[in-house]
Design brief:
By secondary structure, the protein is an alpha/beta fold. It has two domains: 5-181, NAD(P)-binding Rossmann-like Domain (Rossmann fold); 192-276, Orthogonal Bundle (N-(1-d-carboxylethyl)-l-norvaline Dehydrogenase, domain 2). The protein is built from eleven helices and eight strands. The chain has helices spanning 13-24, 36-55, 61-69, 94-107, 123-127, 161-173, 190-206, 212-223, 229-236, 238-252, 261-268; strands at residues 5-9, 28-32, 71-74, 85-88, 113-116, 136-141, 150-155, 177-181. It has an eight-stranded mixed β-sheet with strand order 3-2-1-4-5-6-7-8, with helices on both faces. β6 and β7 form a beta hairpin. α1 packs across α2, α7 crosses α9 and α10 (238-252) packs across α11. The chain starts with a strand and ends in a 15-residue tail after the last helix. Bound molecules: nicotinamide-adenine-dinucleotide. Nicotinamide-adenine-dinucleotide (NAD) binds at residues 10-15, 33-35, 38, 89-92, 96, 100, 117-119, 140-141, 143, 236-237, 240, 275.
């Protein structure tokens, strides 16, 4: 099955990025969010990102206009979704995702593939509430989507080979590199390794071992990462980091995954990172 049309559920930072990359690959996209404000923000962020590509000479004006014309923004969930692929990029919460997939399963065509951009949740559990669990898969984009080359594809226990193949082919069409997580374990490959590092950076900060700037500088220059873990946490969203830590702690059942109390405090304060203009740093 070749994927020619896409429906993106959730127009936050990831949903907007996914919509942009798909439209830039000539796939027509409907971007849905229940909040008009989020759709406005998504439209602005796509326009801003494309303008940067234009400025750098990576695209011309005709390509910019065509990409924008391929994205439809909507705050009303259609009564029927005809897209070949739906990618959900809503909040990292199992109950909310199950509710969304149950609804989507009723609205799509029998052939539609349902993908989730979850960072850590069980694909198998999300698939279990749908009519066709063999057509449900994890499609984990990295942030920021237009710049990051990788997509992790995760098979739930029920995912069929043809679903995997169609999604892998589509991902390559988007210009991304595919890695396969063969097993549906929390955090898959990237976040299973990355998020405990971010959590540990919060412990180092909480214990007063170093300033945020020095923690980030140490990891940037000492381990050759493009940015330090606290800056990265601000980019990912501290709420998302905390959700993932909580899932690891609960599902993997080991103390080493205990979320850092300082991370929890920042989230309680509404300091979620770049998206709220305040996290570990102020923007
Ligand atoms: N932020 C990252 O770096 C990153 C990276 C990879 C994957 N992810 C995953 O992508 C998903 C989205 O993350 P994000 O950072 O874009 O979050 P975000 O908070 O920026 O956006 C979430 C969007 O979903 C919308 N939404 C939530 N519930 C909804 C509902 N029931 N109906 C309609 N819209 C709803 C919100 O209005 C919001 O616009 C999460 O599952 C996250 O774990 C995030």
């Amino acid at each position: 099955m070749s994927i020619e049309s896409l429906f993106v559920f959730g127009a936050g930072q990831m949903g907007a990025g996914i919509a942009q990359v798909a439209a830039a690959s000539d796939i027509s996209v409907t971007l849905y969010d229940k909040f008009d404000l989020q759709l406005d923000k998504a439209k602005k962020s796509i326009e801003f990102s494309l303008a940067k590509h234009l400025e750098k000479g990576q695209i011309d004006k005709a390509k910019l206009d065509k990409t924008l014309s391929l994205v439809t923004f909507t705050a009303s969930l259609p009564s029927a979704i005809k897209a070949d692929l739906v990618i959900e990029a809503a909040v990292e919460d199992m109950e909310i995702k199950k509710e969304i997939f149950k609804t989507l399963s009723e609205l799509v065509t029998p052939a539609t593939i349902l993908a989730t951009n979850t960072s850590s949740l069980s694909i198998t559990k999300i698939a279990s509430v749908t009519k066709n669990p063999e057509q449900v898969i994890g499609m984990h984009f990295m942030n920021p989507v237009p710049l990051m080359a990788l997509v992790e594809i995760i098979r739930g226990i029920q995912t069929s080979d043809s679903t995997f193949q169609a999604v892998a082919d589509c991902t390559k069409k988007l210009g991304k590199t595919v890695v396969e997580a063969k097993k549906d374990f929390p955090g898959f490959i990237v976040n299973r390794i990355l998020v405990p590092m971010i959590n540990e950076a919060f412990f180092v900060l909480m214990e007063g071992i170093a300033s945020p700037e020095d923690i980030d500088e140490a990891m940037k220059l000492g381990t050759n990462q493009p940015m330090g873990p606290l800056k990265l946490a601000d980019l990912v969203g501290l709420d998302t980091c905390l959700f993932i830590c909580e899932i690891f702690h609960k599902e993997l059942g080991e103390d080493k995954y205990r979320p850092c109390p300082l991370l929890r405090k920042y989230v309680e304060a509404g300091w979620l990172g770049r998206k709220t203009k305040k996290g570990v740093y102020t923007y």
